[in-house]
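Example 3.2
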Amino acid sequence: MAPFAIVSYLLLCLMVAVLGRRSRLGFFRCLLFSVMLTPFLIMLYLLIFSSGEERARRD
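Structure, written as C-alpha cells:
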C-alpha cells in the first residue's frame, strides 16, 4: 500500500507543477511546494491567483 500511495502523491505533485508552469511560481517551485506542503494547497493557490495574472496580462 505504501509504494502506491507515494507514487500517487508524486504524480499528483507533478500534475500540479505542470499546471503551474506558466504561473508566477513556475514549474520547479510548484513541484517543490507541492512536495513540501500538499498538492491541494498549491492547486488552491494556482486557482486563486492565476485569474488575477490572466487579467493583468490582457490589460
